[in-house]
Amino acid sequence: MKKINLLFLAVLIAIGSKAQWNALNSGTTENITILKFLDSQNGFYGYGASTTSGGIKKTTDGGKTWTNSLNTGTIAIWNMTFFNSNSGLACGNNGNIYSWNGLSWTGIGIPSGWSNGFDAWQIGFKDAVTGWVVGAGGMLYKTTNGGVSWSSVDYGQGTATLRNITFLDANTGFMAGSGGYLLKTTDGGTIWNPVATKTKDDFRFVGTAAPSTLWYSCSNGTVNKTVDAGTTWSTYSVGTAATINNDLSVIDANTVIVSSNTANKVFYTSDGGNSWNFNTIGGTSYRGIHFIDDVTGWIAGNAGAIYKTVSGYNAPSITPAFSGSTVDAAANSSTSISITANGRWTAESNASWLKVTTSEGLKNGTISVTALTTSPTQRTATVTVSMLSYTKTFTVTQLPTITVSISQKYDVSQVNVYPTSTENALTVKIENDYIGKIEVFVYNTAGRMLRNNTYSKIERNAVFEVNVSEMNQGIYFLKIKHGNNIVTKKFSKM
User: Fold this and answer.
1) Can you give the C-alpha Rg of the chain in angstroms?
2) CB 360 within 8 A of CB 345
3) What is the pTM of this model?
């Protein structure tokens, strides 16, 4: 029987207590301004802050490769919002708006009456069809048909730059911008009223956590937060004098990760903002950041820099629960190995005969491997479990088939041949429980077979006669086979 023996071999990439952010090839040297992912594989980034070229690139493999999705010329893309994989909007320089239909981007153009030279900074929706776009100079435009057309809104609150707009529900929404400027609506966007805050820092990007928590990234190294839908506000310093005026990704009411203009760093808190730490990544300033869950995220910034993590802000960890498991190795037999991990992992085999039937997972899970074929000789495959460049491996060894013959044995002491010397014939007498075919062979001393006779044994006691009259004088051997039992007797021919 074949067995697959699993032997665990740890391959540890030591990175201390730091999170692992792996550099990706973005396919551009332009400044990346915004980053959005729909799931673990499909995402977009907007670029063009240098104004030499602008557009949107798309990935379908988690950021490994990027392809051109929209070329805007010199128009930078500042923000994107998606309703699902087949519907989304982007905005940029001079109020330009673009629509995504699941296959391609289409330019909607600049809303009628939008002031020349004023950028559109963000688009926010309260439902599938009703949304607003905000921009420089207090620009506020509304759509009621999912972004097909836009009309100006006079909200009566001045011309301060508006950087973002978001809704907690169908009635409660916020607009924020320069100098701590914050407005709130409780009637679905008809009336907007100023909200008193504790800061004069610029509000830049916003993230929400249901049902009533908002986080704002701000200038001067601060983050502002409300947990009661804007009634009260708290201002937190991330512990740096750098401007935290770029995107943020809210994991939950207590956990937020913020990109910054400080080279090499991304800041995070897991206790609601009371304390802040940072990960060191690479030598650039970061603008866009997006997490699809608490461990899988991307960050991007100047000169096309883009990085990915699958363990959040923690160092990656993978621990297979393994203690010498075995599995029958007949074709399509399989075994499972439990995995304890703190992030998103993938698993692959280096051999075609061993298939990893569970090739990816999130945090704790189970890896299943299947031996597709058998083998006459021993062979070994390696299964590698990876969290980006952090890996652990185990081997799967398939042993060759060991055939054990299991058959009934009979009393060979009751097989007799006489006489031991003869001129004409030998008598073979068998007294045991074997019933079936009897084969009798005659060999000379050189090992050459001279005769082969077959008899049928139908009862316990049987007697057969073997004619040797025509054989020359000499010494011979008589081999008697019945079932898996063989008896050899020596005789002489006179």
Assistant:
1) 40
2) yes
3) 0.74
Tokens representing 324?
């010498």
Q: Whole-angstrom Cα distance, residue 308 to residue 285?
A: 15
Fill in the DSSP letter of residue 346. Answer: E
Exposure on the CB side of residue 400, measured as CA atoms within 13 A: 6
> If you search the block for the tokens 């929706």, which residue do you land on?
125
Angle at 296 between CA 212 and CA 208, to 5 degrees: 10
Characterize 332-361 residue by residue with b for buried, 16 or more Cβ atoms within 10 angstroms of its Cβ, and e for exposed. ebbbebebebbbbbbbebeeebbbbebeeb
For the chain, list the domains and their CATH numbers.
3-12+316-398 (2.60.40.10), 22-309 (2.130.10.10), 412-493 (2.60.40.10)
Residue-wise pLDDT tens digits, 360-390: 999 999 888 888 888 777 778 888 899 998 9
Cis check for the bond before 316: say yes or no (omega within 30 of 0).
no
Looking at residue 175, the DSSP 8-state letter turns out to be E
Taking the mean position of all CA atoms in its chain, how far away is CA 197? 42
Nearest to 385 by CA among 364, 412, 416: 364
